[in-house]
């Protein structure tokens, strides 16, 4: 005859299993929660959907492509001058926004050179050095309008710093900079500090890649489709201007 099971023992074993399973689940939740708390603890990055303080996104001496009266919408871009996506968005989005909304919005450009782009920091230094002679916009446009002449070599991203610096000298001459001062400023501690301050503010704002845009403190999420993003950004800017 088959062995009879004791219903009391069976129920007891089942109850024990349920309790043990519940304990394991509680511990797992606590551990996961602790890991998340640890990862976020002490992290000043803005989370998704949070408004980034204006003091983080824009400094009194930040470079601008457009300036507008107080209360106008403010668009901030964190840019890497050797970043292919920044170049693509410059062609399809930012250059158009700059032209269409000139004088109506504050359009602020901050540096966020990525380590993966070997010429990003030299390019940022060149733009900042030009800004110290009052020619930020001119050098900014030179960098992107002539992007492939310095950022690429033989179809791939260049790491030839000397060739890039020679091109930057050409740009500097074309926009009428004092070349000696340009070289001095490029290698100055002031320019280094400006770039590092931009990077630090970008990290606080939650920048994880370039280009990154913030409209009135809110992250503008890119779709990866420049034309779609241009249309959406136009709608948001028009709505902000209508308020």
From TrEMBL:
<dbReference type="InterPro" id="IPR036249">
    <property type="entry name" value="Thioredoxin-like_sf"/>
</dbReference>
<dbReference type="Pfam" id="PF13462">
    <property type="entry name" value="Thioredoxin_4"/>
</dbReference>
<comment type="similarity">
    <text>Belongs to the thioredoxin family. DsbA subfamily.</text>
</comment>
<dbReference type="InterPro" id="IPR012336">
    <property type="entry name" value="Thioredoxin-like_fold"/>
</dbReference>
<dbReference type="GO" id="GO:0016853">
    <property type="term" value="F:isomerase activity"/>
</dbReference>
<feature type="transmembrane region" description="Helical">
    <location>
        <begin position="18"/>
        <end position="38"/>
    </location>
</feature>
<keyword id="KW-0472">Membrane</keyword>
<dbReference type="InterPro" id="IPR013766">
    <property type="entry name" value="Thioredoxin_domain"/>
</dbReference>
<feature type="domain" description="Thioredoxin">
    <location>
        <begin position="46"/>
        <end position="242"/>
    </location>
</feature>
<protein>
    <submittedName>
        <fullName>Protein-disulfide isomerase</fullName>
    </submittedName>
</protein>
<keyword id="KW-1133">Transmembrane helix</keyword>
<keyword id="KW-0413">Isomerase</keyword>
<keyword id="KW-0812">Transmembrane</keyword>
């Amino acid at each position: 005859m088959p062995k009879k099971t004791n219903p009391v023992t069976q129920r007891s074993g089942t109850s024990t299993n349920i309790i043990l399973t519940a304990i394991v689940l509680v511990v797992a939740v606590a551990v996961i929660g602790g890991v998340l708390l640890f990862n976020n603890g002490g992290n000043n990055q803005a989370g998704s959907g949070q408004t980034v303080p204006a003091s983080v996104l824009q400094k009194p001496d930040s470079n601008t492509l457009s300036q507008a009266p107080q209360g106008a919408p403010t668009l901030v871009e964190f840019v890497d001058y050797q970043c292919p996506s920044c170049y693509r968005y410059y062609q399809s989005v930012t250059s158009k926004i700059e032209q269409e909304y000139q004088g109506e919005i504050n359009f602020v450009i901050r540096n966020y050179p990525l380590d993966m782009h070997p010429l990003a920091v030299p390019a940022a230094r060149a733009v900042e050095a030009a800004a110290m002679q009052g020619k930020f916009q001119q050098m900014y446009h030179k960098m992107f309008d002539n992007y492939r002449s310095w950022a690429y070599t033989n179809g791939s991203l260049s790491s030839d710093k000397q060739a890039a610096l020679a091109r930057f000298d050409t740009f500097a001459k074309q926009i009428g900079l004092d070349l000696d001062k340009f070289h001095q400023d490029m290698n100055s501690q002031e320019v280094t500090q400006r770039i590092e301050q931009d990077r630090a503010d970008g990290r606080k704002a939650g920048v994880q890649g370039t280009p990154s845009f913030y409209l009135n403190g809110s992250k503008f999420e890119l779709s990866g489709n420049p034309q779609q993003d241009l249309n959406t950004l136009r709608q948001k800017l028009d709505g902000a201007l209508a308020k």
